[in-house]
Amino acid sequence: VEPPDMDSSGEDINGMVEKDDAPKGPSGQKETSTADMLRIKQQMSNQCFEMEVYLNAGKNRRSCSTSEAERDYSDHISELERVKTLQFNQTLALHRMQMWHAMGEKIKTNDPEADALKVVNQRCMALCCRIKQIQQETRLLQDEITELQKKRLEMKRLTHEKMKEMEDLMSRKEHPDTEKYKAALEKGQTNLEKYKKMSIMAQNVLRGLLLACKINWLDDPKLRDVAMTLEEFPITD
Amino acid sequence: MSRLNPFAKLPGLNTASVLLVESEEHFQQSLAEALVEETSVTVNVRLAKSFPLPIENDESRPRIDLVVFIINLTSELSFQSAEASLKYLEPGYFLGKVCFMVTNARSSSVPAERLDAVRRLAASLHCPLLFAEEQTPEGVTNAAERLLTILKAAAGFVPFTTPLYLSNLTRCTLPPDIDQPSFD
Fold first, then answer.
1. Under an 8 A CB cutoff, do B54 and A7 touch?
2. What are phi and psi of A15, to 5 degrees?
3. What is the largest CA-CA distance in chain A?
4. Membrane-crossing residues (chain A) (predicted)?
5. How far is residue B46's CA from residue B49's CA, in Å, rounded to a whole number?
6. Contact B156 A43 (CB under 8 A)
7. Average pLDDT for chain A
């Protein structure tokens, strides 16, 4: 690594760093292979293209605003990408065609390499058939799975509906039944109260009678039973 | 005022030349050493503090394929020096032959406005903006690798790609909320 050159006035330094064992170019011992030469050629053609573009850049001048320029720029970029993709795909297709043609030619020659190629071809075809089979099976299984899922969803939906119905019914049933029930209950209760009062009154009257007339109820068994029941009801109001 | 012209000289065969401009002259050395490790092409690295470059070296200087401005975000001087150097470059350089590299972006002493200013500068010039970590050897190697990708395209080593096309893909863009106040 060479030390940077120091300007005599101590101003901006412009130094150079270079690897000691770097290949030195045409005067060096390193031989450039064909691949290297192709690469260098491509590099040079790239550079020339760039310079050409730069030279031609000044020719089509027109004045426009920055925003217009930006828009044009992005339009051009998309167009460039579109064309690049197209070219790439077409090159791929071309290479595919070339490959197939070369393979076809090779197989026609009937030498041991061609036989090996044929064997590989057969294997590829067998594998492709197998792949197709498996893909079909996968499709069938997938369809079955989808069917099952649909059924399950349907079941879920039905269950949901039934549950809703049940809830509805339950909430509805309480209402009319409790109403009737309530009415009947109330009616029954008022009746009960009424009869209760009547019986209490009757009992009070009977008690009064027994006491007032000093009737001897102990001796008569029937009268004694009746008198005993008088004790059960409390004397109300 | 002599400007650096990208097309004034012939390109070198199987060679790529890069000029690292850094006003602090700190990162350039280690980056340069990492860059010359590349074996498939010959990489010429030239170091400079700022523009204008000394006239004495004009003859011996090869054609520069890529100019890299290394900006240390912790120093305002670094940014200003880089900005001032821009006018010494021919406009042809800004079609993909200029790159900005920023160091110390994670440092807490960096004001957010400076990074925004660097971003705006890179975006307005349609140049890529790289972030580098200079303190570890891995950081230096990573930065060198990324720089080499751009350098190879700038020197014409990538088929069907011109530096202008690559710069369109790698150019710095401004986040839409750059004018809004940041977190802190």
1. yes
2. -105, 170
3. 160
4. none
5. 10
6. yes
7. 81
- Three-state DSSP class for residue A188: helix
- Considering only CB atoms, A51 lies closest to which of B7, B163, B165, namely B7
pLDDT at B49 over 50: yes
Q: Please give the Cα distance from A41 to B159 (Å, whole number).
A: 11
B129: which strand partners? B100
The token duo for A57 is: 């850049």
Half-sphere exposure of B16 (CA within 13 A, CB side): 28
Instruction: Determine phi and psi for A58, rounding to 5 degrees.
Output: -80, -10
- In this complex, the residue of B42, B49, B92 whose CB is nearest that of residue A23 is B42
What is the three-state SS of A12-38?
Answer: CCEEEECCCCCCCCCCCCCCCCHHHHH
| Positive/negative CA dihedral, A36, A32, B31, B52 | negative
CB B121 within 8 A of CB B84: no
Tokens of B115: 């990074």
> Is B32 close to A17, i.e. CB distance below 8 A?
yes
**Contact call for B25 and A13, based on CB within 8 A:** yes
ipTM field: 0.80
Q: Which of A60-74, A106-120, A128-142, B141-155 has the highest mean pLDDT?
A: A128-142
A:B CB pairs within 8 Å: 91
- In angstroms, the CA A195 to CA A206 distance is 16
Q: How confident is the model at residue A29 (pLDDT cuts 50, 70, 90)?
A: very low
| Sheet arrangement for strand B66-72 | A14-17, B42-48, B15-22, B66-72, B98-103, B129-132
Question: Among residues B34, B18, B3, which one has the least CA distance to residue B134?
Answer: B34
- What is the length of chain B? 184
Where is A211: in which H helix or E strand?
helix A112-212
What are the tokens at A131? 């792949």
- Asked whether B162 and A53 are in contact (CB, 8 A), the reply is yes
Question: So what's the pLDDT on residue A208?
Answer: 86
